[in-house]
Amino acid sequence: MIPIFGLGIIIIILIELVRRGNTYYITSKRLIHEYTFIVRKISYVTYDKIQDLHLTQSFLERIVGIGTIHVDTAGTTFIELIFKGISNPFSIKRLIEKRI
Q1: What are the helix and strand counts (H, E) for the chain?
Q2: Level-2 CATH architecture, domain 2-99
Q3: Is pLDDT at 95 greater than 70 in this prediction?
Q4: Where are the beta strands (DSSP E) in 27-93?
Q5: Is 3 or 54 the better-scoring residue by pLDDT?
Q6: Looking at residue 1, what is its pLDDT?
Q7: Distance between CA atoms of 9 and 84, rounded to whole angstroms?
Q8: Which 3 state secondary structure label does DSSP give 38?
Q9: Are 30 and 44 in contact (CB under 8 A)?
Q10: Could you tell me the residue ranges of all domains in the chain?
Q11: What is the pLDDT of residues 21-62, one digit of tens each?
C-alpha cells in the first residue's frame, strides 16, 4: 500500500513541475510560449502570421474557469502554439483577436 501511495505522490509532484514549467506571454508584437522543465523551449508567433484561434474547454475546465487556446499559423498544417490551462480563456482569446 505504501509504495503505491508514494508513487502517486511522485506522479502528482512531476505533473505540477511540468505545469509550472509553462509560461505564456502576450506582447505587443507576438505570442510567446516558454517551457522550462529539464530543457528549455521557447516558441513564438507574430500576430501577422496567425490564421485562426480555437478555444477548448472540457467539462472540468469549465467548472474551474480554465481552458486551452490553440493558435494556427500561416504556412503550416499543425497548430503552432498551444496555451494550456489558462485562466479566463475567453478574455485572453478576445485580447489576442484585438491584436491580430
Answers
A1: 3, 6
A2: Roll (2.30)
A3: yes
A4: 30-36, 40-46, 50-56, 66-73, 79-87
A5: 54
A6: 55
A7: 23
A8: coil
A9: yes
A10: 2-99
A11: 889 999 999 999 998 888 899 999 999 889 899 999 999 889
Contacts of 26 (CB under 8 A, 6+ apart): 32, 92, 95, 96, 99
Stated as kind and residue range, the H or E segment containing 25 is: strand 22-26
Please state whether beta strands 50-56 and 40-46 pair in parallel, antiparallel, or not at all (unpaired).
unpaired
Total-model pTM: 0.75
Give Cα separations from 86 to 1, 17, 51, 64, 77 (angstroms). 35, 16, 21, 10, 24
pLDDT value for 37: 80
Residue type at 17 in one-letter notation: L
Q: And the C-alpha cell for 87?
A: 485562466
pLDDT at 76 over 70: no
